[in-house]
Design goal:
Ribonuclease iii, N-terminal Endonuclease Domain, Chain A, Double Stranded RNA Binding Domain, single chain, about 60% helix, mainly alpha, three-stranded antiparallel sheet, about 230 residues
């Protein structure tokens, strides 16, 4: 490893808040297969580390949510985890670290903007987490990941009535069915200053439920919460 590369990796370690015993492990976690094939045959790339990192990230976030939200159902925990460790969530953290700057890419990937590609950034971030896990153990990976995900994790701690069940349902619906849920007010009751709204929620012609609330928004959230629990088996 060149002195210039070691200096660059020292900067990344500072941003991560973790110092590697085996710096080559960090270097490999940032090596795309295009670089390994073109510049360093036989050296290895980050794909195996990405495989491991996916599991490590899932376990760490699952553990953190389980401890942080003792009253949350299994369904909600699953939905929160999916949102936190989505590609978008991983890319956001990779961008905060400016991870693209540290990647080793082949000429083709370099010329086509590989340092900004979301798929590469998310994969490299998972590989880096796996490298920390292998170098320093579970506690080291957990400390780094939870610390960086803290702002997102904090959003899960709001009161249940404030949760964005509609947003969570939308993500689940797109992932499972490739379509969005629809909402329709089917009934209103009570005086104008104290109405109760009944909203029917339909998804994929198969799932239906009716939510109630003092506003249309509250009724939609109630319906989305019910359907999420059906889908996720809470």
């Amino acid at each position: 490893m060149t002195a210039e590369r070691a200096t660059l990796l020292a900067l990344l370690q500072e941003r991560l808040g973790y110092t590697f015993r085996d710096l080559a492990l960090l270097d490999r976690s940032l090596t795309h297969k295009s670089f390994a094939n073109e510049m360093a045959p036989g050296q290895g790339d980050y794909e195996r580390l990405e495989f491991l990192g996916d599991t490590v990230v899932g376990l760490i976030i699952s553990t953190a949510l389980y401890r942080q939200e003792p009253a949350a159902s299994e369904g909600l925990l699953s939905a929160w985890r999916a949102r936190i460790v989505s590609e978008q969530g991983l890319v956001r953290l990779a961008q905060q670290l400016d991870l693209g700057r540290f990647l080793r890419l082949g000429r083709g990937e370099e010329h086509t903007g590989g340092r900004q590609k979301h798929s590469l950034l998310a994969a490299a971030f998972e590989a880096v987490i796996a490298a920390i896990y292998l170098d320093g153990g579970f506690a080291a990976a957990q400390d780094m990941l939870v610390r960086h995900f803290a702002p997102v994790m904090a959003q899960c701690a709001v009161a249940p009535q404030e949760q964005d069940y509609k947003g969570l349902l939308q993500e689940q619906a797109l992932s499972a069915f490739g379509c969005l849920p629809s909402y329709c007010v089917v009934h209103e009751e009570g005086p104008a200053h104290h109405k109760t709204f009944h909203v029917r929620l339909t998804l994929h012609h198969e799932y239906r439920c009716v939510g109630r609330g003092r506003s249309k928004k509250a009724a939609e959230q109630h319906a989305a919460k019910q359907l999420l629990e059906q889908l996720l088996g809470s």
